[in-house]
Write a structure and sequence with these properties.
Strand order of the largest sheet: 1-7-8-9-2
Order of helices and strands: HEEEEEEEEE
Number of strands: 9
Number of helices: 1
Radius of gyration: 19 Å
Number of domains: 1
Length: about 180
């Protein structure tokens, strides 16, 4: 009798682990729709409490600096420790747009109700609108920004405070979803 109950429990746990091992892909489009292409590149940003900010200039297809890409820590008000990081892509020609990764300029949108407007938030907490390991694809103008958290570490392990995060970043002019294998 006990072994009959154990088999479904083990199968359920195995399926849950398998589902967690394949990162979901979440796609959205920026409020910015235009014809700009960028120089394609990919890199890995390694963030720590000692070096918590990453900055990179992104060039347009003509080779001119067009965007300022940054990953900066988020620290709760009144605290000094990092709980997540956020990604920004500022348009250098139109300084009014300090983050063109937003799906909507309406910041009153609750990320819990519309997770696609929070793909730029790299939050590994269990309450995050988008799972930390999700592959995030954001179409901006006529190019794509692909973000994926590869690793993160809490200190202490049972706290909400991060001491490191590694983020894979890609800038592409073709839709990265077209290169993905079909889902089974």
């Amino acid at each position: 009798m006990k072994s009959r109950l154990l088999v479904p429990i083990v199968l359920c746990a195995a399926m849950r682990l398998a589902a967690q091992s394949t990162a979901p892909t979440v796609y959205t489009e920026s409020f910015r729709q235009g014809a700009t292409h960028v120089v394609e590149e990919s890199f890995e940003a390694k963030l720590t409490t000692q070096d918590p900010v990453y900055r990179e200039r992104i060039k347009d297809s003509r080779g001119a600096d067009r965007y300022a890409f940054s990953i900066i820590p988020r620290v709760p008000e009144g605290d000094t420790k990092i709980t997540s990081w956020q990604v920004k892509l500022a348009d250098l020609r139109h300084t009014i747009y300090d983050n063109v990764l937003l799906a909507s300029l309406d910041l009153s949108d609750d990320p819990k109700n519309d997770p696609k407007n929070s793909l730029w938030r790299l939050d590994p907490s269990i309450n995050a609108a988008v799972p930390a390991g999700a592959r995030r694809i954001i179409k901006v103008d006529s190019f794509y920004v692909v973000l994926q958290v590869k690793a993160y570490h809490f200190t202490p392990l049972d706290s909400p405070y991060l001491d490191s995060m590694t983020v894979s970043v890609e800038f592409r002019n073709t839709d990265p979803r077209q290169a993905d294998p079909p889902a089974k």
